Amino acid sequence: MDIFLKVENITKQFAGHTALDDVSLEVPRGCVYGLLGPNGAGKTTLIRIINHITAPDKGRVWFNGHPLSPADVVNIGYLPEERGLYKTMKVGEQALYFAQLKGLSKAEATARLKKWFVKFGIEGWWNKKVSELSKGMAQKVQFIVTVLHEPQLLIFDEPFSGFDPINANLLKNEILELRDKGATVIFSTHNMSSVEEVCDHITLINKSKNILSGPLDEVRRAHGGNIFEVDFRGDRGALVGALEGLPCTLLDESLVATEEDGTDKGLKIHINRDEDVRSVVEVINNSVQLRTFREVIPSMNDIFIKAVANHSAK
């Protein structure tokens, strides 16, 4: 795996409070990496260290194969949760100002900004004052400024906050397109449904520690617990009898649904091991008419709540 960003044993304290405690993680190149955790977990502190806004007390960050340095900041685009635009400036004037701070010439910045403004449907706001923008409009401008110089690493802190579903979907698609074009994205959020929609890998931080990391699909499957739903037609009693003695357990709330005539339609079972799945499916198929057999994969919201609760209880 090609690692673009590596956080190595980072510790950071503020006035006796440990914000990060020996945190390590690896962000693969060209992925959307979810940085998750409750409020106060340490996510923002880590983001600021990656942005070279503050320095760690211990540990270091590797950026594209070398130790992170101030010179790397130009290759980072950062959209903080605390939005901020100068309200008295005109929208286009301010966007040009920020673009030139990132090293773009006025001509190049203007050309790129015009394309993005048209793409986001805000071309008519170029000469308006920032104070005239709605919250969503202002966030679109800040997103554009963040990505305009085409940095190698993009960091979005709660990028969908305050957006309606249509504009949130617009930003989601843009983030995925930027990833597909080669950008590496760190995505910090509390919205677990958006994590499932955009993230390839995740790290969950709680109480200043990394408590869970990995590819999203692997994390969800690992927390599934080998639970399966079975839809079938036939005699439920015959099926239950056939399952007795097999390496599986009929769960307490085993009835998933019923047909209109009251005939049992579905069961939920736990299978002890992966290698037992084939034999259980064979027995089911020989006992009733098997319609569907699917693994129950927990949502990221369920995993988030369970993992944080378990870690906090230690």
Principal-axis shape equals elongated
E-strand count = 14
CATH architecture of the largest domain: 3-Layer(aba) Sandwich
Q: How many helix segments?
A: 10
Between the first and last Cα atoms, what is the distance in angstroms? 33 Å
Task: Kindly provide the radius of gyration, computed on alpha-carbon positions and rounded to a whole number of angstroms.
Answer: 25 Å
Helix content: 25-40%
Provide the residue-averaged pLDDT.
90
Beta-sheet strand percentage?
A: 25-35%
Structural class call reads alpha/beta
In the CATH hierarchy, what is the class of the largest domain?
Alpha Beta
Low-confidence stretches: none
Provide the spatial order of strands within the biggest beta sheet. 6-7-8-3-9-10
Number of domains: 2
Summary tags:
Alpha-Beta Plaits; 314 residues; 10 helices; six-stranded mixed beta sheet; 2 domains; Rossmann fold; elongated
Task: Write a compact overview of the structure shown.
This protein is of the alpha/beta class. Helices cover about 35% and strands about 30% of the residues.
Topology:
Blueprint: E1 3-14, E2 17-28, E3 32-36, H1 43-50, E4 58-63, E5 66-67, E6 76-79, H2 91-101, H3 106-119, H4 135-147, E7 153-157, H5 165-180, E8 184-188, H6 192-198, E9 201-206, E10 209-215, H7 216-222, E11 227-233, H8 236-243, E12 248-255, E13 266-271, H9 277-287, E14 289-295, H10 300-312
Parallel strand pairs: 3-8, 3-9, 6-7, 7-8
Antiparallel strand pairs: 1-2, 1-4, 4-5, 9-10, 11-13, 11-14, 12-13
Helix pairs in contact: 2-3, 2-4, 8-9
